[in-house]
Amino acid sequence: MKVIQVVGRSNSGKTYFIHRLLERMTVMFPGKVGVIKHMGHHIFELSEGKDTTTHYEHGAECVAGVDAEKTVLTVRDDNLDKSLEILCDLGMKYAIIEGFKEYGFKKIVKGELESGECLLRDPTVDDVTESLDAFDDYYTLGGLVKELEEDERAPAGASIVTFSGVFENIPMDYGKIAGKIGENEGIVSVKTSLNGKKVMIGVASVDTRSACNAIDKAVSELAGMKS
Question: Which ranges carry the Molybdopterin-guanine dinucleotide biosynthesis protein B (MobB) domain (predicted)?
Fold first, then answer.
């Protein structure tokens, strides 16, 4: 899942720009674009007296209200990572974030706000859609599996194998090592994610043995190298 973060001072046009971006991207990637907005100190008020609200008030960790058109989920968590995990597990390919400027994702900056992670400043929608590959990845194992399942290169009945592990030393050429997985016989598609010291690998293969052998080689190489 690609993370497209939009930041800027108040009244810089963040929301308006995201609306224009959504109009384009939801056509390009139907059903695969989600949005997270940082509310800050403005508390999102739950409807007083409604069953979904009282369930939450009585201690439920999360409450989902499902009607004929949509599902509204309330989660007792204010961490951006939790929302990103939810979107990724739902199979979103793109998560647009409004705000949370303290997070280190590559950013679209509206206006004069200073940011060390600025990828695009005051871009057009075309600028963004032409630069999608440059934005940061964010994955959960569930998200990796969904992308592999939807990969058009994977034949019906393809085996999907995942790995998740923490390494004290991640080599500088991590990407090359991960890329070697795809060179193994029987491998159809590979997805990898690096978040700090945590490495996640997902492989789609014509058979389970090929996928396991390819991941085993990559993990052994990662474990044996120093940064």
Answer: 3-109
| Span 119-169, pLDDT tens digits | 999 999 999 999 999 999 998 989 988 888 888 887 777 888 988 888 776
Superfamily of domain 2-43+77-137: P-loop containing nucleotide triphosphate hydrolases (3.40.50.300)
CA-CA distances (angstroms) from residue 137 to 2, 96, 221?
5, 12, 23
Alpha helices in the chain (DSSP H): 14-28, 51-57, 80-89, 125-129, 141-149, 174-179, 208-224
Q: How far apart are CA 140 and CA 28, in angstroms?
A: 23
What fold is seen in the domain 141-224? Aldehyde Oxidoreductase; domain 3 (3.90.1170)
Closest CA to 186 of 162, 145, 147, 153: 153
- What integer pLDDT is reported at residue 222 of this predicted model? 72
Residue 159's beta-bridge partner residues? Answer: 205
Q: Which of 223, 216, 220, 3 is nearest to 100 (CA)?
A: 3
Taken in order 101, 102, 103, 109, is the CA torsion positive or negative? Answer: positive
C-alpha distances (whole Å) from 26 to each of 97, 124, 154, 225 are 15, 16, 24, 42
CA distance 201 to 11: 41
pTM beyond 0.85: the answer is: no
194's CB contacts (< 8 A; 6+ apart) are 170, 174, 200
